[in-house]
Amino acid sequence: MNEILDTLHSRLRRAIECCSGQDYCNGDLHPTLPPLLTSEYVDPSVKYITIFITVPLCSVILLACVILIFCCLRFKRQESRPRYSIDLEQGETFIPPGESLKDLMEYSHSVGSGSGSGLPLLVQRTIAKQIQMVKQIGKGRYGEVWMGKWREERVAVKVFFTTEEESWFRETEIYQTFLMRHDNILGFIAADIKGTGSWTQLYLITDYHENGSLYDYLKSNRLDVRSLLRLAYSSISGLCHLHTEIYGTQGKPAIAHRDLKSKNILVKKNGSCCIADLGLAVKFNSDTSKADIPPNLRVGTKRYMAPEVLDESLNRSSFPSFIFADMYSFGLILWEMSRRCISGGVVEEYQLPYYDLVPTDPSYEDMEEVVCIKKQRPSFPNRWSNDECLRQMGKVMSECWAHSPECRLTALRVKKTLAKTLESQDIKL
């Protein structure tokens, strides 16, 4: 303000006198400067400048105060919200009470995370930390399977041994592949690593299916034709989705399971199946024509290994080779299912493939001798020839477990064949 007044003083303190009565009359002139301006007098232009500066400054201060008040109120509102978990640790996120797993999945899909690409990682970690373990329902070479609860919803929790970290990582990665989610692939919920410096637990949380594995289901249940076709068609639908590459900006790669067996297929409450246990699966990158394949070719379960896996002649540079090996294993699974289907009032007891040809826990050599050298396959009961559905199933499985990989049916072809069988039997699933 002082600078402005000084400028005005310099402009206003001027005196002008004139004369014209005689020559050199200006010599008698003695102009006097007007008195200095005081703060009591301010030029109107100065008032305008002051208002121009003061009004915006006050507006900014007022806006800042409003924002500060709004933030304080919002913080208090969040603090007063009921939390499901008393304390959210770092790396957790708030999930409002009442949100079900189905709601979370549908919301995740609707906001564009991709069908089957999984929940956000912070949500996964929060769910994993809120799981209540109820009872152990299984155990394998990788670890244990528990039935757990999250907000009264039952879930399956696969706890991996620390030595199986690579398998945990692979399975988690496969489940979160874009467009992976499918009715006949086990529903993935979350994955997390829990632990301290002294211990670590690797969690994989999925949908829970009370019927258990197909292996358990077949041991305790006899099938009619409808049940058999439902199990078979849903299983091959899941495998077909796994094997199929979906092209697009964000497509889905072709995936080979590599450990397909009845214990790795689960039976849902509605009698359909879903493919599970993807820890040994491999993705195929069509852009590079390469797949991330471990150096050890003989992986999986010996009883279900294809001939080319047993004798290590599988062409590892060709990804379809792994797809063909899956189809061999699926042929054996169809055999397990079909034996438990009643026809003419007769049904066989449940048995594993090659139960009459190899020991209970066969070695590689046992399996190689039977499958590769002798080229034997599971036998068909005589009654199958008198039942059109079982006869058709026998034909399909024979073409799935053909000795030459290239001669085996694809998952899509099996799916279409079973769809025609359903239609011929006038069965709607």
Automatic annotation (TrEMBL):
<dbReference type="InterPro" id="IPR017441">
    <property type="entry name" value="Protein_kinase_ATP_BS"/>
</dbReference>
<keyword id="KW-0732">Signal</keyword>
<dbReference type="InterPro" id="IPR008271">
    <property type="entry name" value="Ser/Thr_kinase_AS"/>
</dbReference>
<comment type="similarity">
    <text>Belongs to the protein kinase superfamily. TKL Ser/Thr protein kinase family. TGFB receptor subfamily.</text>
</comment>
<dbReference type="Pfam" id="PF08515">
    <property type="entry name" value="TGF_beta_GS"/>
</dbReference>
<keyword id="KW-0460">Magnesium</keyword>
<feature type="domain" description="Protein kinase">
    <location>
        <begin position="131"/>
        <end position="422"/>
    </location>
</feature>
<dbReference type="GO" id="GO:0004675">
    <property type="term" value="F:transmembrane receptor protein serine/threonine kinase activity"/>
</dbReference>
<dbReference type="InterPro" id="IPR003605">
    <property type="entry name" value="GS_dom"/>
</dbReference>
<dbReference type="InterPro" id="IPR000719">
    <property type="entry name" value="Prot_kinase_dom"/>
</dbReference>
<feature type="transmembrane region" description="Helical">
    <location>
        <begin position="48"/>
        <end position="73"/>
    </location>
</feature>
<dbReference type="GO" id="GO:0005524">
    <property type="term" value="F:ATP binding"/>
</dbReference>
<keyword id="KW-1133">Transmembrane helix</keyword>
<keyword id="KW-0464">Manganese</keyword>
<dbReference type="GO" id="GO:0043235">
    <property type="term" value="C:receptor complex"/>
</dbReference>
<keyword id="KW-0808">Transferase</keyword>
<keyword id="KW-0479">Metal-binding</keyword>
<dbReference type="GO" id="GO:0005886">
    <property type="term" value="C:plasma membrane"/>
</dbReference>
<keyword id="KW-0547">Nucleotide-binding</keyword>
<keyword id="KW-0418">Kinase</keyword>
<dbReference type="InterPro" id="IPR000333">
    <property type="entry name" value="TGFB_receptor"/>
</dbReference>
<dbReference type="InterPro" id="IPR045860">
    <property type="entry name" value="Snake_toxin-like_sf"/>
</dbReference>
<keyword id="KW-0067">ATP-binding</keyword>
<keyword id="KW-0723">Serine/threonine-protein kinase</keyword>
<keyword id="KW-0472">Membrane</keyword>
<keyword id="KW-0675">Receptor</keyword>
<dbReference type="InterPro" id="IPR011009">
    <property type="entry name" value="Kinase-like_dom_sf"/>
</dbReference>
<feature type="domain" description="GS">
    <location>
        <begin position="99"/>
        <end position="130"/>
    </location>
</feature>
<dbReference type="Pfam" id="PF07714">
    <property type="entry name" value="PK_Tyr_Ser-Thr"/>
</dbReference>
<dbReference type="GO" id="GO:0046872">
    <property type="term" value="F:metal ion binding"/>
</dbReference>
<dbReference type="InterPro" id="IPR001245">
    <property type="entry name" value="Ser-Thr/Tyr_kinase_cat_dom"/>
</dbReference>
<feature type="binding site">
    <location>
        <position position="158"/>
    </location>
    <ligand>
        <name>ATP</name>
    </ligand>
</feature>
<dbReference type="GO" id="GO:0071363">
    <property type="term" value="P:cellular response to growth factor stimulus"/>
</dbReference>
<keyword id="KW-0812">Transmembrane</keyword>
<protein>
    <recommendedName>
        <fullName>Serine/threonine-protein kinase receptor</fullName>
        <ecNumber>2.7.11.30</ecNumber>
    </recommendedName>
</protein>
